[in-house]
Structures are given as C-alpha cells and as structure tokens.
Amino acid sequence: MTVPEHPFGLMAKVYRDIFPLVHQELDIWKQKSESIHNSELKAQATASIRDKTFHCEGGGILALLSGNHKQKCVEFIIAYQTISDYLDNLCDRSTSLDPRDFRMLHASMQDALTVGAEPQNYYQFREEQDDSGYLHELVKTCQRVLGSIEHYDMIKPYLLELCGYYCDLQVHKHVIEHERVPRLEKWFTQYESGLPEMEWYEFSACAGSTLGIFCLVAYSFQPDFTENTAKKIRNSYFPYIQGLHILLDYLIDQEEDLLEGDLNFCSYYESHEEMMKRLEHFIQKADEHLHGIPHENFHRLINRGLLGVYLSDDKVAGQKEMGRLAKKLIKASGKTSFFFYINGRAYRKFQKMAWVKNSKKKAQIIC
C-alpha cells in the first residue's frame, strides 16, 4: 500500500481520490436529511451537514490508509461523523437538558460500532421523535461496513473505548450550565492516574475526537493488520493527536461559543500565551507518540495538516491577537504547517467563490 508522506503528494491524493467520495456520501445523507418529518430534527440534521462538511473532509483523509477499500472506508467515516455532528447539534441546541436524553442519543454511536446491535429508540427521552429512520440508517451503514472487515474483532475494544470517552464527554458538557464543569472535573479524576500530566479540560478535548476511530477502521482493511498495530494506533492517537485536534477546533470557535453560551475548553487557559504554549506541548507529544506506528511520516503530516487547516480559518484571522499567536505557532511548527496553512486559506477562498457563483445562478433562475 502506497501512502503519501509529502505535503504535495498528500493534497493531490486528497483532492483527487478522497474529497469526491466524501461529497458523494454527504450528498446521499443530505437528501435523506431533507426527508425527515419532524421539523426540529430535520433542521438540525440538515444544518450539521451544511455547516460541518469540513469535519467529514478531514476525517475522510484517513481513508488513504485503507488501500483499495477507500470507498467503503469513506462510507463508514462519513456516516459515523454525520452521527457525531448531528447529535452535537441536537445537544447544543437541545430542547432538553436531560442527561438521560444525551446518553440515549449517543448510544447510537456505540451501536454503530457494534456489529449485530439492534438499533434502539434513541429519541425516547425527548419530545421530537420522527426522524423518518435517518439515525437508524446511519447506524446500520456503519455496522454494515464494519461487518465486512476481516479484522473487526481486533479493533472493536479500542473503538468502544474511544467511543466511551466521547459519549461521556457529550453527556457532561451539555447538561444544565452550572453542572457542566463539576461533572467534567469529577469524570477526569476517574482517569487521571492513567494519563500524562494535563488539566481536566485538556482531557475533555482528548475525548472529543473521532480521529482514532477512523484511523483504526482504515488500517483494519489491510490483510496483514495485527493486534499489535491496533494497540499502537490507539496509543498514538489517544490522548495527544486527538487532544490537539479538538483544542484547535475549540480555539477557532471561542467567540462563537461565548456568544451562544456553549462550553469551550480553550477558555479555561489563563491567557492566550499559556494556551499556545500548551498547544506546542501537544504538538511535540503527538509527534513523539508516533514512533513505531506504520507510515509514521503520513501521521506527522496529519498533525501539521490539523494546525494549518484550523489556524487558517477566517475566525482566527478575524481576531487580531489570536491571528498573531496563530501565525507564531505556524512559524514554530515548520514549513509543512505553513504549506497546509496556505493551502487551507486558498481552499476556503475557492469554496467562497464557488458559493457566490452558485448563489448568482440560483438568483438568475428565480428571476
């Protein structure tokens, strides 16, 4: 299996082989979301696909590790990430603040990773019910792909472990506001002794990524996959790569989360300088924990890609102090990060131009 280990080669394969598959799958789920009967569930499902496409694009890159099984791998990644983004919308804009509701919704993510599990009524603790089979279809799609993988049993324990962290996080961070931090701090103490030194909000960030799951699934398509490889991937991606991923995600959403009253882990750092120092620490540790993993250079590219893509976001450029610190971090992280930073800026500009062009076409049709 040939895996790109240089930035230009990676981006060429991503644009040529991965993004078309990602958008093909997203179009399928977009159409299904538009057929949902309940107006609130429909609104959140369509919004999650419209507003969080880049989550699927980023996750889809790991399908490059699946060899000749990219189509199947992307099918899983998009279905699973779509569940994640949809449930995040339901919880963020929830008509309920009931932890039982959040727990039940996220049981769908565990069922999606458990081949043979019967889909449940994931909406049983909320008023909105009829999603026209949307969430069940997403769950079954994930199960079907996993059921076709020869080495599924080797990755299953790690998938469920990482999913368990993710689901616990989503419950604790969405409850009534004054309970969130105490619950997250208490949850952190359950795992603190087995973790490297970090704060509760950094552990929460490590729990909030799906990258480890996607990496395990992608590699497990390979005929020579082993239990030792599965363990290496888990230990390489959790906690540091996943933590870096989500800290960057929260970094760009700070102002938005403040306005909407959403929990943001980056807001707990005492200063921007401290936050950037800890991000540098996570970058360094993420690199260290990649020693011995197959295709080590590819995974380093992913780390640098995360930096470039997130820090090139318009939300960062729009904040003077944040923009200054982001450029400093990019510079400290080397030429590869700068390449992905420039690439990210160019890709967003292209997307905006395409959106304006499509909007003008629609306006002409209406006229």
What distinguishing features does this structure have?
single chain, 367 residues, 17 helices, mainly alpha
Structure explained in plain terms:
GO terms for molecular function: lyase activity. Its EC number is 4.2.3.130. This is Tetraprenyl-beta-curcumene synthase. The protein contains 17 helices and no strands. The chain is globular. Helix 7 (152-174) packs parallel to helix 11 (227-252) and helix 8 crosses helix 9 (200-207). The protein is mainly α. It has helices spanning 7-33, 39-51, 53-60, 70-92, 99-112, 134-147, 152-174, 177-191, 200-207, 211-220, 227-252, 254-260, 272-288, 296-311, 314-317, 320-332, 335-366.
Which percent range fits the helix content? over 70%
From the N-terminal CA to the C-terminal CA, the straight-line distance is 52 Å
Run of helices and strands = HHHHHHHHHHHHHHHHH
**Biggest sheet details:** none
Number of strands: 0
**Shape call:** globular
Number of helices: 17
Q: Which regions contain 5 or more consecutive residues with pLDDT less than 50?
A: none
Task: Calculate Rg over CA atoms.
Answer: 20 Å
The percent range for strand residues is under 5%
* Global mean pLDDT: 92
Structural category is mainly alpha
Pfam family, one: DUF2600
Protein name: Tetraprenyl-beta-curcumene synthase
InterPro entries: YtpB-like
Enzyme class: lyase
Short account of what is shown:
GO terms for molecular function: lyase activity. With about 375 residues, the protein is mainly α.
Summarize the SSE layout with pairings:
Elements: H1 7-33, H2 39-51, H3 53-60, H4 70-92, H5 99-112, H6 134-147, H7 152-174, H8 177-191, H9 200-207, H10 211-220, H11 227-252, H12 254-260, H13 272-288, H14 296-311, H15 314-317, H16 320-332, H17 335-366
Helix pairs in contact: 1-2, 1-3, 1-4, 2-4, 3-4, 4-5, 4-6, 5-6, 5-7, 7-8, 7-10, 7-11, 8-9, 9-11, 10-11, 11-13, 11-14, 13-16, 14-17
